[in-house]
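Quick one, probably user error.
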């Protein structure tokens, strides 16, 4: 297939490329096609079986590193929110979508190769490994090698302490990148995209991804309003436990994001994400006011004070 014949669409942070044909979108991935094509579609199938709108597979050409999926257009919720004033009403619909996603209890799904994919658990090790992307990629841009060694060990211990303070034991389906750029508005319905990294984990994770979205700046008051709106819709959750886990996972997620955005720039030459790092730092600052973050704040302020973060 000659992809030059098709219109290339703006992509995501994965190794996938998207092209629009007359009746479909071609998803191409020569690197890591298993997760970017096979598992990508398998999770979409799981969502569709549970009446969550996701891109339907039209044709698979896995041996040639591409699949064809239905065209959902270009309207993300991010673009919708930038235009419309009734933001809370839109978020209510997203919260209801999230609550439905969290009710899915199937831990395996069938791929188009007729094999089963078993969704992994969001283990403590996996969460720490992700937070350590901050250590691996961001710290070398700010600290000396000797400083990195000192900070690395201390950070790892702090991450473990914070994760030990998580209070919600129930595991639910976690999208892992549940933000408004990954929700499409198509035919008056919400469609979820970019779901290949789904796992089973803490219900506060996707909520933190949505409300503390580094790509969409909102005020603290608005974020608090969103949390209260979610609590009214999801009445089974214990509010204090959720708030605690929300704060911890938001901070760790945004440290991870700073690491990922730095990696995208240094390794993949995708520099556009660097401009989002200052807001990720602000989100970390806003969510780390509780005493449980004291050790983390002291360490970060000692080695990466605010002036150093903005350079």
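Nope, works fine. Designed sequence:
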């Amino acid at each position: 297939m000659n992809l030059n014949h098709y219109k290339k669409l703006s992509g995501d942070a994965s190794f996938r490329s998207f092209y629009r044909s007359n009746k479909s979108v071609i998803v191409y991935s020569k690197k890591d096609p298993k997760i970017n094509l096979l598992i990508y579609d398998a999770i979409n199938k799981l969502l569709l079986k549970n009446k969550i709108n996701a891109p339907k597979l039209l044709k698979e050409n896995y041996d040639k590193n591409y699949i064809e999926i239905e065209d959902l257009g270009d309207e993300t919720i991010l673009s919708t929110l930038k235009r419309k004033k009734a933001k809370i009403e839109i978020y209510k619909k997203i919260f209801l979508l999230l609550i439905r996603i969290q009710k899915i209890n199937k831990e395996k799904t069938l791929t188009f190769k007729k094999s089963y994919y078993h969704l992994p658990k969001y283990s403590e090790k996996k969460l720490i490994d992700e937070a350590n992307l901050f250590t691996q990629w961001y710290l070398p841009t700010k600290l000396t090698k000797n400083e990195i060694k000192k900070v690395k060990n201390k950070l790892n211990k702090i991450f473990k302490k914070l994760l030990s303070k998580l209070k919600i034991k129930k595991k639910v389906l976690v999208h892992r990148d549940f933000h408004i750029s990954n929700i499409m508005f198509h035919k008056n319905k919400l469609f979820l995209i970019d779901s290949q990294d789904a796992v089973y984990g803490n219900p506060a994770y996707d909520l933190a991804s949505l409300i503390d979205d580094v790509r969409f700046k909102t005020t603290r008051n608005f974020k608090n309003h969103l949390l209260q709106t979610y609590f009214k819709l999801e009445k089974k959750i214990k509010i204090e436990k959720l708030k605690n886990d929300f704060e911890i996972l938001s901070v760790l997620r945004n440290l991870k994001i700073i690491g990922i955005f730095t990696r995208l720039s240094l390794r993949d030459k995708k520099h556009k994400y660097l401009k989002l790092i200052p807001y990720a730092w602000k989100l970390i600052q806003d969510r780390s006011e509780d005493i449980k973050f004291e050790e983390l704040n002291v360490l970060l302020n000692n080695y990466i004070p605010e002036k150093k973060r903005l350079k």
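The chain has two domains: 3-69, 77-309.
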